[in-house]
Amino acid sequence: xxxxxxxxxxxxxxxxxxxxxxxxxxxxxxxxxxxxxxxxxxxxxxxxxxxxxxxxxxxxxxxxxxxxxxxxxxxxxxxxxxxxxxxxxxxxxxxxxxxxxxxxxxxxxxxxxxxxxxxxxxxxxxxxxxxxxxxxxxxxxxxxxxxxxxxxxxxxxxxx
Length: 160
Hints:
This protein has one domain (5-159). The longest helix is centred in the first third of the chain and has 13 residues, at 31-43. By secondary structure, the protein is of the alpha+beta class. It contains six helices and eleven strands. The strands form three sheets. The protein has a seven-stranded antiparallel sheet with strand order 1-6-5-7-8-9-4, with helices on both faces. Strands 2-3 form a two-stranded antiparallel ribbon. It has a two-stranded antiparallel ribbon with strand order 10-11. Strand 2 and strand 3 (50-51) form a beta hairpin. Helices cover 32% and strands 31% of the residues.
């Protein structure tokens, strides 16, 4: 099965190129993505394949019904975040590559990011350095929250 971005996210790659944005394609099923997913699982409580937002003290959620509401919701959830924050956009399809880019560029091409998957897959926008995640759940929620700041693993305090 192919993990070529031009098969999975052609409109997103085209929009980034047209914008002249700096981005990096992170191969699907790569060690880097596995590490990112492991981090997400450590700092956010999961219930099945979705973050259990009720257990995240610092979070906000917006319901959406269509693509316009989804794009507007992302703008509202990110208005107080730094546009220069480096994020990874990852998709629910394990064969789909992820993208590393600036949050400001994500906002500029949000429509292209969401329109392909709005009703079929979940999307996560993750800023590991700033310890937050935005989750677009295909059933109509868009949530942003901070992960647990510290955790103890085998008696050693780790900072995420």
